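C-alpha cells for chain A. Residues wanted.
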C-alpha cells in the first residue's frame, strides 16, 4: 500500500550545525532535480532569510527515494524555523512528522537549541535519529559527541550516524535509517477529515496557500472545509504537494503533507496548529496542541516623514497578510505623532518586520524601544495590561505589577560559568539549576524577566563568553516585580516615546546612564537642552546638551545661493532619521538608548 511507503520527517539542529547543507544533500540524492536546477540551500527561500542565515518560513518537500530493499519510498521533508521566536511553529511542523533527524556538530557537540528541539520532538512522540555531522573537520570529536548524545539526551550512542553533509559522507546511511526507523503514518482515510495546518503563505495570485498534514480522512478539490479555530469555511480549489515545485494532486489523504488552495484572502484565517475538517461531515474533536500565537514584544513604529503614515499602514496590512503573528493598531504619541503599536513574537521577528518595511516599502521609521506586556493591578481592584510604558498609571494608583518570565538555558564551557552567572544575576535572574554535560561543558538554567532578555541579554552573553555560549528560552508565565515607570524630559517636556519601565533598585543607575547617552546622541541645538529622568515628580538624573556654537549657514552669508542650498540639502540628509520632538531634533538611536545599561 502507498501509505506504508510514506516517511514524514524534519531535520532539527542548533544553528550552523548543518541542517540546510544536509537538506541540500538529501534533495540531490532523492529528487529528479539536477545540480544546476537546484539553488544553493533550496529550503531557505526568502532573500532576507538567506542573508541572515535563518529560516523564517517552514516548507515541505515531497521526495521519492529508491531504498536498498528495491522499493520506492515517498519522503516528506518538513523544514522548521531555527530561532526561539518561532518555537510554536517549530513544534507544529514537528507535529506533522513521525520522525526527526537530529543533527549535532561533531566539533561543537550539543548546544542549547539542540536540547530545546529534542524536547519538542519528544513532546510530539517522534522517532529521533541522531546524526553527528561535520566529521570531516580536523577538530571533530565524534566519539565524545556520541557519548554526549547518550548522556545528555538519552539516545543510544550506537544509534548515532556519522556524516559530513559538506563532503557527502554518510548520506545513504541517513536515508536508509529514515526508511527503517521512522514509522509510516497511520490513520483512517475514510474518517471525517482532520488535517493540521503547520504553515501558510500569502500568494498574490492564488490567495493563501495552506501547508498541512492530513491525519485522518481525505480532501480533494470541490470539498467544503472548515477551519476549526476560526470557524471560517472555504471551498477547496486545489490540493497538491511540493516537489519542490507545487504540483496539483487529485486528493490528499492520510499521511500526506502538502498544500491546499481555497480562495482564502488572509493568513489569519489559517492559523498554525489549527485543524482543517470537512464542513459537511466535521470531526468531533480538533487535533491537540492548537494555541493562538500571541505577540510577546511590542514597540511603536512611526514614519519619519508624517506624509508616509498611510503608506506605513498599507505596508503593515500587506505584511500581515503573510504573517499571522504580526499585530498592529494605530497609536498616537505626543512626541512622535501618528504611528502604530506593533506586536511581535520576539526581537528577531521585530527586526525582520522593520527591515522589510524600510527595504520593500521604502519608508523611514522611528522605532521606539521594545516593551513586554505588563499586568498591572490597581488599588481599586481592577487590572490593566500595558504594552506601552507611556500608558502606565500613576504610582499611587498601583497595587502591584507582574511581568513575564522565561526559563533560560545557557550552555558554556567551564571557564565561562562565572561570567554567565554574573550576567544572569545582573539581569534579575533566579538560579534554577546547573548540570555538567561532560567534563568541560555546563548547562545553566535561570528564570529571568523577559524584558531583560529583550534588552541586550544575548549580545552581552556572546561578548562575555567569546561567542562560546549557546542560549535558548521558553515562556513560563508572570511573576510580581517591583517595577516603576521612568519618564524622560527634554527641555522640560515629557517625551512619552522615551518612557520605560524599570526595576526600582536599578532606576537611579539606569536614569543616569540614559541621560548621559541622550546627551551624546542628540545633536546640539540652537539653545541649551536639559535632559532629565524622573520617577513620578522626582528628578533622579540630569544632563545638559550645550547649545550649538556656530550656525552652519553663518559662513554662507553673502556667499552664492547654490552653495547655501547644497549645505541645507546636506543637513537634511543627515537629518533623515531625525524627528522633531517638541522643540528638539531627536535621532532614531536616541529612542533605543533607553535600553542602555552602561
Ligand atoms: P544550518 O544553520 O544548520 O542550516 O547550517 P548550514 O547548513 O547553513 O551550515 C552551516 C555552516 O557549516 C556552513 O558554512 C556549511 O558549509 C558548514 N557545514 C555544514 N555541514 C558541514 C560538514 O559536514 N562539514 C563541514 N566542514 N562544514 C559543514
Ligand atoms: Mg539553515
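Reply:
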Amino acid at each position: 500500500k502507498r501509505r506504508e511507503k510514506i516517511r514524514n520527517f524534519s531535520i532539527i539542529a542548533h544553528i550552523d550545525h548543518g541542517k540546510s547543507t544536509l537538506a541540500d544533500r538529501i534533495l540531490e540524492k532523492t529528487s529528479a532535480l539536477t545540480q544546476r536546477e537546484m539553488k544553493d540551500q533550496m529550503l531557505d527561500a526568502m532573500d532576507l532569510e538567506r542573508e541572515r542565515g535563518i529560516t523564517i518560513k517552514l516548507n515541505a518537500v515531497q521526495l521519492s527515494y529508491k531504498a536498498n530493499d528495491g522499493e520506492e519510498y515517498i519522503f516528506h521533508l518538513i523544514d522548521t524555523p531555527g530561532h526561539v521566536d518561532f518555537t510554536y511553529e517549530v513544534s507544529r511542523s514537528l507535529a506533522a512528522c513521525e520522525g526527526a533527524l537530529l543533527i549535532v556538530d561533531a566539533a561543537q557537540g550539543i548546544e542549547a537549541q539542540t536540547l530545546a528541539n529534542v524536547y519538542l520532538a519528544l513532546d510530539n512522540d517522534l522517532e529521533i535519529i541522531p546524526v553527528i555531522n561535520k566529521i570531516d573537520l580536523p577538530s571533530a570529536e565524534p566519539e565524545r559527541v556520541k557519548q554526549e548524545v547518550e548522556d545528555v539526551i538519552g539516545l543510544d550512542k550506537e544509534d548515532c550516524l556519522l556524516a559530513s553533509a559538506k563532503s557527502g559522507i554518510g548520506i545513504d546511511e541517513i536515508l536508509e535509517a529514515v526508511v527503517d526507523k521512522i514509522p509510516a503514518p497511520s490513520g483512517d482515510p475514510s474518517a471525517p477529515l482532520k488535517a493540521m495546518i503547520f504553515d501558510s503563505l500569502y500568494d498574490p495570485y492564488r490567495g493563501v496557500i495552506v501547508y498541512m498534514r492530513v491525519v485522518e480522512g481525505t480532501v480533494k478539490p470541490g470539498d467544503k472545509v472548515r477551519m476549526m479555530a476560526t470557524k471560517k469555511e472555504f471551498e477547496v480549489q486545489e490540493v497538491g504537494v511540493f516537489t519542490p515545485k507545487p504540483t496539483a494532486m487529485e486528493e490528499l489523504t492520510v499521511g500526506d503533507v502538502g498544500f491546499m488552495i481555497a480562495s482564502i484572502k488572509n493568513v489569519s484565517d489559517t492559523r498554525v496548529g489549527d485543524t482543517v475538517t470537512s464542513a459537511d461531515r466535521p470531526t468531533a474533536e480538533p487535533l491537540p496542541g492548537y494555541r493562538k500565537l500571541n505577540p510577546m514584544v511590542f514597540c511603536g513604529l512611526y514614519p519619519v516623514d508624517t506624509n508616509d503614515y498611510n503608506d506605513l499602514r498599507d505596508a503593515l496590512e500587506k505584511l500581515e497578510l503573510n504573517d499571522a503573528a504580526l499585530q498592529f493598531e494605530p497609536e498616537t504619541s505626543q512626541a512622535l505623532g501618528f504611528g502604530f503599536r506593533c506586536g511581535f513574537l520576539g526581537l528577531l521577528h521585530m527586526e525582520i518586520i522593520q527591515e522589510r518595511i524600510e527595504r520593500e516599502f521604502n519608508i523611514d521609521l522611528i522605532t521606539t524601544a521594545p516593551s513586554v506586556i505588563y499586568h498591572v493591578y490597581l488599588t481599586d481592584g481592577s487590572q490593566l495590561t500595558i504594552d506601552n510604558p507611556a500608558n502606565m498609571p500613576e504610582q499611587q494608583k498601583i497595587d502591584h505589577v507582574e511581568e513575564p518570565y522565561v526559563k533560560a538555558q545557557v550552555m558554556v564551557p567551564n571557564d565561562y560559568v562565572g561570567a554567565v552567572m554574573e550576567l544572569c544575576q545582573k539581569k534579575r535572574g533566579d538560579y534554577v539549576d546547573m548540570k555538567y554535560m561532560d567534563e568541560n561543558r555546563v548547562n545553566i538554567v535561570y528564570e529571568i524577566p523577559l524584558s531583560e532578555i529583550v534588552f541586550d541579554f544575548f549580545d552581552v552573553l556572546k561578548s562575555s563568553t567569546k561567542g562560546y555560549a549557546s542560549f535558548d528560552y521558553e515562556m513560563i508565565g508572570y511573576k510580581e516585580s517591583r517595577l516603576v515607570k521612568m519618564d524622560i524630559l527634554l527641555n522640560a517636556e515629557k517625551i512619552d516615546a522615551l518612557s520605560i519601565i524599570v526595576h526600582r533598585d536599578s532606576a537611579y543607575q539606569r536614569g543616569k546612564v540614559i541621560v548621559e547617552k541622550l546627551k551624546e546622541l542628540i545633536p546640539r541645538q540652537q539653545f541649551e537642552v536639559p535632559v532629565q529622568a524622573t520617577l513620578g515628580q522626582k528628578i533622579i538624573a540630569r544632563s545638559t546638551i550645550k547649545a550649538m556654537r556656530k550656525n552652519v549657514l553663518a559662513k554662507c552669508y553673502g556667499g552664492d545661493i547654490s552653495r547655501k542650498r547644497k549645505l541645507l540639502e546636506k543637513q537634511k540628509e543627515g537629518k533623515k532619521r531625525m524627528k522633531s520632538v517638541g522643540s528638539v531634533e531627536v535621532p532614531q538611536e536616541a529612542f533605543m538608548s533607553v535600553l542602555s545599561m552602561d
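DSSP finds 13 helices and 33 strands in the chain. The first helix runs from residue 19 to 30.
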